Amino acid sequence: MRRKADNATYVHWKEAAGGTKEAVVEGVESRNYTPEQRMQKVNVINVMARSSTFDKLLMVQCLKQKGYVVVVTVVGKNDVPTLKEVDIGLSMGIQSTEVAKESSDFVILDDKFATLRASAGEVPLIVVQLLWMNLIMDTMAAQALITDKPAKEIIERPLVGPTVITNIVWMNLLPQASF
């Protein structure tokens, strides 16, 4: 017997998932699928309602076998085995247990998916900027090493001593380390 609040949530999930029967599946129903049925239906399931940790784990394993990148949101410590299987694990900063937060890849501090959605749009630009800067900096450094001809007197000069850390290096290192 469903409680009224659960039924309202279930209907809301169905509407959000496009209203199709296959888009929302309860954990008990998915648990009773054969492995072949689960592999067939995993493509059309958008929401798994009232599911246990084992249900989530089975779904994640099916999605991984099909080659999907899997992201899961967890709250409790029972979901840690599922977190170990997924590509990206999310936990809620307020509702999640400490074990779930430590095991997940990202913690949504304010428990709002809108925060995640807003920051996801910024990430690709930052990544491209970092890659571009890395490419430019590495290229310039490589160009400097390639084009500069080494001086003959530096190459022919004998080694300073058997150790790399000389007295001069120690004199510079100690004051800097004290700060």
Give structural notes.
This protein is mainly alpha-helical and 179 residues long. It folds into two domains: 4-111, HAD superfamily/HAD-like (Rossmann fold, 3-Layer(aba) Sandwich); 122-178, no CATH class. The protein contains nine helices and five strands. The strands form two sheets. The protein has a three-stranded parallel beta sheet. The chain has a two-stranded parallel sheet with strand order 1-2. The protein is elongated, with a radius of gyration of 28 Å. The model is unreliable at 1-17 (pLDDT under 50). Keywords: Magnesium, Metal-binding. Residues 123-174 form the Cation-transporting P-type ATPase C-terminal domain. GO terms for molecular function: metal ion binding; P-type calcium transporter activity.
Could you provide a short overview of the structure?
The protein is 57% helix and 10% strand. It has 179 residues and is mainly alpha-helical. The N and C termini lie far apart (67 Å).
- Kindly, what is the distance between the CA atoms of the first and last residues, rounded to a whole number of angstroms? 67 Å
Q: In the CATH hierarchy, what is the superfamily of the largest domain?
A: HAD superfamily/HAD-like
The total number of structural domains is 2
Form type: elongated
Helix content: 55-70%
Please list the strands of the largest sheet in the order they lie side by side. Answer: 3-4-5
> What would you report as the Rg, rounded to the nearest angstrom?
28 Å
**CATH architecture name of the largest domain:** 3-Layer(aba) Sandwich
- Which structural category fits the helices and strands? mainly alpha
Q: What is the number of E strands?
A: 5
What oligomeric assembly is this protein in?
single chain
Reported for the largest beta sheet, the result is: 3 strands, parallel
